[in-house]
Write a structure and sequence with these properties.
ATP binding; Mo/tungstate-bd_C_term_dom; five-stranded antiparallel beta sheet; binds adenosine-5'-diphosphate; ABC_transporter-like_CS; OB fold (Dihydrolipoamide Acetyltransferase, E2P); 27% helix; 10 helices; 376 residues; alpha+beta; Rossmann fold; binds magnesium ion
């Protein structure tokens, strides 16, 4: 029912190719994030799904129905935008009830149309059609705005307005919920709590959700799977852990989490490890590669720092020489910037009061397991 399939979707605006041959398979009930920098085509993808743009080529299916020729209001998609797009002159209840009323107005049953004309009056008299009132109040309970139903939306905070927008989308019981950067206008703290609110409502209702963001942390913490987009293309689809541990390209390694990315040449193979050499380092990796030039990806938390004079043993470990440029104490971890050749590596170590912190200028050894050296 609520699955979304996108096949070979290309969208051009004149000379600009906003989307280039996009393929996505979003499962029923899944929380799916589109992640990528500004201008990569996220909104255009959403607008094509919602029916506000028509594909130049390619097809979109919601459930098993192809959407070609089906207008936006008949696609059964709920939408929430960065700008809340609420009616400021209406109260919370009416904002959420609005589309339901319109739907009832459009339905073929003449008697069903009557309530909307008298709604404002009847609401005062307690005669709002029960079916609408029940649904609206249930949704307001979900987003914890029950006690605000009589407030004008212009009197609400940003977070509250965004929850009204969410309730308004959900009250229609859409097959698919589309959210385009819904949290971007909220301050940091509110953004964090809204992540949880949205995720738990989505889980509760089991509604297929496509969530657009340029914030990797947001995508990682909320989504079942993520499609990373760049320049109108989907570059990788996977679970947050897939993307983190096996980024397909340096762009993804850099965009998802923090990475050290080093250029290196492949020197050969030794004991079924690939030996690579770059400016100031030789490393062995458990990865195989056909290439002669590679990008070496090392996550900051996979590196250990030890005193340059200390012997390191461990058959599965690389050792490289470096010099501490800066140390930043972050509570439970210490982040080091370490000079290796012409590179400045970021290293996150667990703080221990026993070893203290290596001071700036200190010569150190960095160790990283062969398994943790990724070649792409
Ligand atoms: P995102 O949401 O990821 O920031 P968009 O989907 O808004 O990216 O835009 C993708 C590309 O398509 C951009 O280069 C943008 O300038 C272009 N674009 C989007 N909408 C239009 C339009 N209506 N006319 C022309 N170009 C557009
Ligand atoms: Mg956008």
């Amino acid at each position: 029912m609520g699955s979304v399939k996108i096949e070979k979707l290309t969208k051009k605006f004149g000379d600009v190719t906003a989307l280039h041959d996009i393929n996505l398979d979003i499962r029923e009930g899944e929380f799916f994030a589109l992640l990528g920098p500004s201008g990569c085509g996220k909104t255009t993808t959403m607008r094509c799904i919602a029916g506000f743009e028509s594909p130049t080529t390619g097809a979109i299916y919601i459930g098993d129905r192809e959407m070609k020729g089906i207008s936006a209001n008949r696609r059964n998609c709920g939408m929430v935008f960065q700008s809340y797009a609420l009616f400021p002159h209406m109260d919370v209840f009416d904002n959420v009830a609005y589309s339901l009323n319109i739907k009832q107005l459009n339905s073929s049953n003449f008697f069903a149309k009557l309530p909307i004309y008298t709604r404002l009056l009847s609401k005062r008299l307690g005669k709002t059609p029960k079916n609408i009132e029940n649904k609206v109040m249930e949704m307001l309970r979900y987003v914890e705005l029950e006690q605000y139903s009589d407030r004008l939306t212009s009197e609400l905070s940003g977070g509250q307005q965004q929850r009204v927008a969410l309730a308004r989308a959900l009250v229609m019981e859409p097959a698919v919920l589309l959210m385009d950067e819904p949290l971007s206008n909220l301050d940091q703290k509110l953004r964090h709590s809204m992540r949880n609110t949205i995720r738990s409502i989505q889980q509760d209702l089991g509604i297929t959700t496509i969530f657009v963001t340029h914030d990797q942390e947001e995508a990682m913490s909320m989504a079942d799977r993520i499609a990373v987009m760049d320049h109108g293309k989907v570059v990788q689809v996977g679970t947050p852990t897939d993307l983190y541990s096996n980024p397909a390209t340096p762009f993804i390694a850099d965009f998802v989490g923090t990475s050290n990315i080093l250029k290196a040449s492949v020197e050969g193979e030794e004991n079924s490890l690939t030996v690579v050499k770059g400016d100031g380092f030789v490393l062995r990796s458990a990865n195989k590669t056909d290439k002669t030039e590679v990008d070496v990806i090392i996550r900051p938390e996979h590196v250990k720092v030890v005193d340059a004079g200390k012997a390191v043993n461990g058959a599965d470990t690389n050792v490289i020489q470096g010099k501490v440029l800066m140390s930043t104490y972050l509570g439970s971890i210490v982040r080091y910037d370490v000079q290796v050749g012409s590179y400045q590596l970021i290293v996150d170590t667990t703080y221990s009061s026993g070893t203290g912190i290596f001071e700036e200028g200190r010569k150190v050894k960095l160790t990283v397991e062969h398994e943790r050296v990724l070649l792409i």
